[in-house]
Amino acid sequence: MTGPVDQGQPSVTRRQRFAVLCASVTGSSMAFVNGTAVNLAIDPIQEGLHASLAAMLWVASIYMLFLASLMLIGGAIGDFYGRRATFVAGVAVFILTSIGCALAPSAEVLILARAGQGIGAALLTPMSLTLIADFYPGRARGTAISIWSAASALFTAIGPPLGGWLAENVGWQSIFLIPLPLGFVALLTAIFFVPRRPPPRRPEAVDWQGALAAVIGFGGIAYGLITLSERPGLGSVLHWGPALTMGAFGLFALTRIEMRARSPMMPPALFRIGTFNAINVVTTLLYGSLGGIFVFYPIYLTDAFGHGVDRIGFAFLGFALPMLVLTAFAGKLTRRFGARAMLTAGSLVGAIAFASMGLAPYSGTLRGAFGSMMIFGAGIALVVPAMNTALFNVTPHRSHGAASGINNACARAATLFAIAGYGAAASYAFRQLAGPAARLAGYGGGDGLRGPAAANYAGAIVSSFELLTWVSIGLALLSAIVAAFFIDADIEKKGTASSGTGAHVGVRRVYGANAEEALEEDEEEKGNGGEAYQSA
């Protein structure tokens, strides 16, 4: 197998680094703002297309399905064929498929276009942070990631109010035009101002077998869970059982393929780094806790309490305020207290936010929603910069794309399974609690109900959402436990956020022989072409 490309890179100017940060922020924000705006508009889209709850779950989850399935190979493609080129391709695909979503005449076409958005996001998302890691060395990397987090949070927070207002006053189709200005800025900046660099690993055979196994695995489980939401209970096991079995087989095949692949999407050496594994577990638990709840929170506020989608969107702006304040200091806080403390604290704050969404006396009010989003924004502000900085600090440079892809895939897969799983749980609880008229209307379809039937419908929505909040609280608490006991406290505190030898010494000191193979590969990269890259 061929060795890594020599990294004899020219010096980078401050202007070029700013261009990298601008492209990364606008590109990732395009994907984030799309997700938050669409989640808030699920109810208007369902009404406009006369679609079922299952179809709407597919509108939300098909994007995550392709994003999670192809994120791994997106990171590897960036390592093999160039991170800038991969980022540009992803942004272009996302722009084109966003236009397709806006023009969709039916739920089926919208689902297909959303799948295309997932493909584009799978290419651009892991590259957005990897480009920052490439062009910002040492402590500047932590600062740049904090800026990326704050700016992304701002654009993400704009999504709900803007999407809600557009859905109410213009039409749900206009929501998919929101990402276009950001996309064009990212595309033009990356093409004309971001320096072109050779890929850190020579082009090799892309692991398409692994990618296919990931699609089958994630898709089978998602399809099974969504079918379970339509046909809950063991009596319909023949409808959802085969899909779940196929999904489990696909994920098992993925692990076997990656262990033997010539150029794996998930280099096995990465999984010998203890904190890398712990970060991915924390990511999975935390994003699972928020991924499902934020699809059903707007339905809870609209259907149970009668709030307009546009007003809910403005209440969701509470998320942005702590993000903008805290992420400005996140790099310093991480260096002072360590990634373990930041991730533990952020997960605990997230659990408090979930409790305030569905269990507090003020849960159904817009003021309560604003406060809940502020609490949640504070938790995310503590988690995201520490997580991303630690991720790049403990992994070899040549595998940054793969590491980012794996971590992002954990986040998106958790969101995908949460949407489908929460949908099944909410549907089952709703059917158990709703009366005949409300059950006939279905979850999210109670607009035509009046009198006692409407009250019964609202009560069933509230009770099913309370169940979901307990699930999210449990996942967030598990995330805090994993962070507290399995992430080393000294990684960020000792200032190992360096791309040079000092960082390698720090990682060796913390992990010992477990990370030695990965670190030796990184040292080979810094030589004159290096030895042949050996993968397990």
Automatic annotation (TrEMBL):
Keywords: Membrane, Transmembrane, Transmembrane helix, Transport. One of its GO terms (cellular component) is membrane. It is a multi-pass membrane protein. Residues 516-536 are annotated as: Disordered. It comes from the Bacteria. The chain crosses the membrane at residues 18-42, 48-73, 85-105, 111-133, 145-166, 172-194, 206-226, 238-257, 278-300, 312-331, 343-363, 369-392, 413-430, 467-487. One of its GO terms (molecular function) is transmembrane transporter activity. CDD domains: MFS_MMR_MDR_like. It is found in: Membrane. Residues 20-491 form the Major facilitator superfamily (MFS) profile domain. This is EmrB/QacA subfamily drug resistance transporter.
